[in-house]
Amino acid sequence: MRIISGKYGGRKIQPVPGNRTRPTTDKVRESLFNMIGPYFDGGNFLDLFAGSGAVAIEAVSRGMKRAVLVDHQYAAYKTIKRNVQISNNENSDFMIWKIDAERAIKKLTDQNEKFDYIFLDPPYAKQQMIKQLSEINNYDLLNVDGLVICETDNQTEIGEVDGYRLMRKKSYGLTIITIYQKI
Fold this sequence. Notes:
InterPro entries: DNA_methylase_N6_adenine_CS, RNA_MeTrfase_RsmD, SAM-dependent_MTases_sf
Keywords: Methyltransferase, Transferase
GO biological process, one term: rRNA methylation
Pfam family, one: Cons_hypoth95
Region (Disordered): 1-23
Structural class: alpha/beta
């Protein structure tokens, strides 16, 4: 695995050991950023199921000011901590929490955090995408015109969601990327 582009482009990162996480492939990550960027001039990025941290690190590498990375697994948390060290600015560019997504959403709301992009890639077997999209909207975590990027398997259909406009949906074999904009 590697960071594809931007100021950390080409640097290697490590996957989470074991088989409890499923990393977003370099190909899907590159396509995702081509759809939403590909480069940014500041902004805040939230990854609620960060795994190795690759997507959020890529976002900061491409110009996001800051990323919050959330994962409740200890192995993922340790991997994220190790991977963000490629930036040499891990304390200012990245906030890493070992917490579940639901508690993270509430904590971020209590801290009046807002995001330009939120990435959702929960374990496929435990997807509650509609519930999470609803919570993000109800707790007002997205900035105006903010985007939520959902990664699902090709067996999961989420379609239209209240409070969002479906912007784009693209299939990459077993993986589907769906992008929603807050309305």
